[in-house]
Amino acid sequence: QTFRSAVRALVPLLLLLICGCLNVERDPYPTEWLRPAPIDALKQLEGRYTNRGEKTFSGHSDTSMGNLWYFLTRQKTEFYSGDTIQITLLSPGELLVELANEAGEVRQSATLSDGPDFKMMDATLRLRPHSEAGATGFGTGMGTETCRLRLAEGGGLVGETDGIATGLLLYAIPIVGVGRDWIFWAKVKEDDVRDGDQGTDCYSLETP
User: Fold this and answer.
1) pTM above 0.90, yes or no
2) What average pLDDT is seen over the chain?
C-alpha cells in the first residue's frame, strides 16, 4: 500500500517531469462513514469484523489492500473475500488476531504485542511503520507507511494510512509524494441460527 499511495501521488510528477517538488494527496474522511472514536483500552477492540473493508482508494491490483488481516499483520493471504477477523485480548498488552473463512474455521492467526508490533498513542493503535524500496526502468524509490487504528462510533474499526515516498526519476530527478487513505471495517454480529436439526453460525453486519 505504501507504493500504491506513493505511485498515485507521484503520477502527476512523472507526467509533468516536475523537479524537486512535493506532491500531496490526502483523501478526506468520507462523511457517510461512521465517525472515528478514540480507543481508551485494548479490550475495546475485541470482536469480529469483516476482513474486506471499504476504502477511499481504488484501482490497485493487489487485493490484500484494504484487508484488516494485512493492515494488522502485514501478512498476505489467499483468503480475500468472505472472511472475518476475530480480535481477542490475551493479556494487557497482547492481541490475538484470527482470520476465519465463511464457515468460521480459523485459517491463520497472529499475536500482536505492545512494543514490537504496536503502540497506544493519542487514543489510537499505532502499528509499526512499514518501509520498502524498489527500482524500475523509470528510477528508484523508497516508501514508508504508518498505519493507525481507531474505533468507529456505533461499531466497526477505522484505519488510517499515511505514506511518504521519495525517489529519483530517471535516477537523477528528485521527487517526493505524500498520501493519506482511510479504510472502514464493519463489526460483525454473530447470531446462532437453527436450520432444521443442524446449527449454523451466521454472520450479519452490525448496524448502530
Assistant:
1) no
2) 77
Strand 188-195 relative to strand 198-205, pairing: antiparallel
Return the closest-CA partner of residue 1 out of 196, 125, 135, 180.
180
pLDDT tens digits, one per residue of 186-202: 999 865 322 333 333 44
- Over residues 134-141, the mean pLDDT reads 76
